[in-house]
Write the structure tokens for this entry.
Amino acid sequence: MLRVTFWGVRGSIAAPGPETVRYGGNTSCVAVQTEDDKLFILDAGTGIIRLGGSLMADAFGRGEGEVTILLTHGHWDHIQGFPFFPPVYVPKNRVTIYGPAHSNSIVEGILEGQMNPHFSPVQSLGNLGAEITCKAVAEGGGGEVTLGALRVRSASVPHGSITSLAYRLDNGGSSLVYCPDAGYIDGDPSDEVLSLFDGADCLIHDCTYTPEDGEARRARGYSSIDVTAKVAARAGVKQLVMFHYDQDYSDGDVDALAARCRTLLDAEAGGDKVELLAAREGLTITV
Ligand SMILES: [Zn+2]
């Protein structure tokens, strides 16, 4: 069983304000707790800041915390919360970060870059108190890592001018897939991606746009809900969780996006069997 909590569900840039108060304005961050009480964090967008604050009441506040962060790629909306994640300032906390790169030092370089004095008064990862370890996941995907009782696999997905990773987490009989940024070529995922998604209990997937906005902004490398509905039905997932909404979409826009996604799913073969949920900050689900 996996306990999944959404701390940031927005794409591209944080979008706080009265129009986004129900779904939330923080960028990508999802906490995953395994049955043996290990904590994994998917992406370090601005949502990780409040998550970190909540962790400080326990082991992380005492310097006894241990967490693994899985980064899908290095765009700002997936790393920008990291320098503000309170547990990194407490000596003896252990933070291991996996990211897509050919070497551990490249993952470190991505995070080090945003600590540069031009961007941050902290100046360097070396000034953080916690023990930080960076590790590379094969950039092309296909890598497999076993972390305690959790089996982590990944696949590469096109994302505009770069690629992003999709992760699949298997724990006991539960399977969770996280794919926040995906701009499939002609709307078609590769066989490798489909096999990663295959039959997952829960697929958290890029749902940035309406079909119309997706068409107009294809070069940005995101999925519109028609593409996502098709992919979820084809992969035969049990549940689809909509994620990574465009920063300009209000709560009402996301409500409409979810209703339309349901209709699109029902029109796909087998799609009517897929449970649909629109992620919002603060929501916890059990997979
Ligand atoms: Zn993103």
Remarks:
- The chain has a mean pLDDT of 96.
- Residues 3-286 form a domain with the Metallo-beta-lactamase; Chain A fold (CATH 3.60.15.10).
- DSSP finds seven helices and 14 strands in the chain.
- The CA atoms of residues 158 and 183 lie 5 Å apart.
